[in-house]
Amino acid sequence: MEILVIEDELRILAFLARALEAEGFVVTPADDGPAGLARAIGGRYDLVVLDLLLPKVNGLTVLRELHRRHPELPVVIVSARSDLRTKLRGFELGASDYVAKPFAFDELLARIRAQLRAHASADGTLLAARDVALDLARRQAQIGARLIDLSDREFRLLHHLVEHAGEVVSRESILSAVWGYYFDPRSNVVDVCVRRLRSKLGEEALIETVRHAGYRLAAA
Predict the structure, then answer these.
(1) Model's pTM, two decimal places?
(2) Distance (Å, whole) CA 117 – CA 126
């Protein structure tokens, strides 16, 4: 996923670029209002991180024009201006979220991921639970910024677990949903596929074994 960061403080701009790239995002930097607006309008980004105190053209003006041209594009404001009036004005002009400086990167990252999930869900192409997101159109799995390649069976099994997140799903239910025909319930085909999923997804996606019952994707 590609993020445009518009920030005139070069130290913060460099930090955000490095930190977001370390999380797997592709980052484009811009250090003033005109450059940021031009890149936002001319490029294809999944999200914009926007400072308000920008040289030449201030952030609220950038936000207004960006929302006029690309109202679907999520924008997260990160600004030292933390007064309620400015926050409300930002939301009125189309901001998706607002983070005051100084900020904790982990919180900003969580808010960015939440906006990306919400935007994809609004398009009806994303199914998500816990830290797992499934892009149904591209048939890709994602945990945070990490994209994971899955086989067709693995994707369909994970899709079934995500749809029933927090619930115990029996092996018979999985066989029916994923394999689509009767399969000997004594077979270990489900267990083998679950082991492959766990190996690919890592500990972030907690697929629990419920003894004598089946499997459950922890909801939180």
Answers:
(1) 0.59
(2) 7
Dist. CA 163–CA 217, nearest whole Å: 9
13 sits in the region (left: phi over 0; alpha: psi -120 to 50; else beta) called alpha
Q: Integer distance in angstroms from the first to the last C-alpha of the chain?
A: 24
Task: Read off the tokens for 155.
Answer: 């994707």
Query: How much of the chain is helix, strand and coil, in % rounded to 5?
Result: 45, 20, 35
Whole-number Å distance between alpha carbons of 24 and 1: 8
Give the residue among 30, 35, 22, 39 at the shortest CA–CA distance from 6.
30
What per-residue confidence (pLDDT) applies to 187?
A: 74
Identify the bridge partners of residue 49 per DSSP, sorted by sequence position: 5, 76
Whether residue 161 contacts residue 215, with contact meaning beta carbons closer than 8 Å, is answered with: yes
Q: How high is the pLDDT of residue 90?
A: 93
Q: Are strands 207-210 and 132-135 parallel, antiparallel or unpaired?
A: unpaired
Name the token pair of 179: 């394999």
Which three-class secondary structure state does DSSP give residue 148? Answer: strand
Contact (CB, 8 A) for 40 and 70: yes
Question: How far is the C-alpha of 160 from the C-alpha of 215, rounded, in Å?
Answer: 11
Eight-state DSSP code of residue 80: S
Eight-state DSSP code of residue 189: H
Distance (Å, whole) CA 161 – CA 190: 12
Would you list the DSSP string of 162-195? HHTTTS-B-HHHHIIIII-S---TT--HHHHHHH
Is residue 20 very low, low, confident or very high in pLDDT (cuts 50, 70, 90)? very high
Residue the block writes with tokens 């639970």: 129
